[in-house]
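Troubleshooting entry. The earlier prediction with zinc ion gave an output that would not parse, so I re-checked the input for stray whitespace and re-submitted. Clean input:
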Amino acid sequence: MTVADAHSAAFIAALEAGDLAGVRRAPKAESHTHGPYGGDRDWLAAQTGRDIAPVSTPLSSMDGMHAWTAANIGDLFSGREGRRLGWEAAFVRARRDGLVRVDFGDDVWMISQGVGDARRLFADIEAARVAVCPDMDWTPQLGFSRHCRAEWLERWLAPFLEVGGWRALDLSGDELAQPIEVFAPLYRACGDRGMRLKAHVGEWGTADDVWRAVETLHLHEVQHGIAAADSPAVMKALADAGTVLNVCPTSNLLLGRVTRLEAHPIRRLFDAGVKVTVNSDDALIFGVGVSEEFLALFRAGLFTAPELDLIRRWSLGAG
Ligand SMILES: [Zn+2]
């Protein structure tokens, strides 16, 4: 038996036994998490004396989530010291979750928020990785907020591209704020530098929005993308293109995008041949890591343990 086969066998056995520690031990990767907001609750409580209890009943909108974040997290991750605390918390959670690779970084806007220049920001995240989990592969990822004007994004992005080292790009925030075409030139600039291109789409928008974003921005991966399950044609296009959908089931549940885990569209996407991965989005806000997400999908009867192992192995191949 190869090492990979042994990991698969142990992961499948752990899922079937409901053994969270065993699920955590299996190597996995996460492509959809938002840095400090994916931080470890217990570690943060020990460091700061503040216990941040996650969302327990569904919020109905992104505004609801922003209000929750302001009330419960506030400015904990503001400024350079706050960001450094957040990076460490994120890597602590990633380590506990059994991640061998994690993709995250910061919004280019941060450069205007007193956290230091592009070089220092990169160095601070890398220092947190080395301090917490030196063996973990970190994919440095830049982010855009969808409500920001393209010329601002271009100005903030420039020093990051100059310094280099960033390997992925994401777009998040209010999905309905501006047409996706606004971001095409910026995505082209990052794509030309070999960066892996992702964007949040199809969480609040439609299946057609998902495909339009993939075509317009030349996306390799879609964050969420669950609305694609409403269209067999879009699912086929995604499957044919090999586009990966980084799905976050508990986030979808707690933001009211799905009513029950048992009915989550990840199953329809999987059945249509779309490559999906399982992610936590904001572990600190939604209260679960990737391992708990895998267990929840198994318990909900959405997938067999071998199917979830296939999804786990897909995550290792992405990024
Ligand atoms: Zn997200």
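This one parsed fine. Residues 12 and 273 are 21 Å apart (CA to CA).
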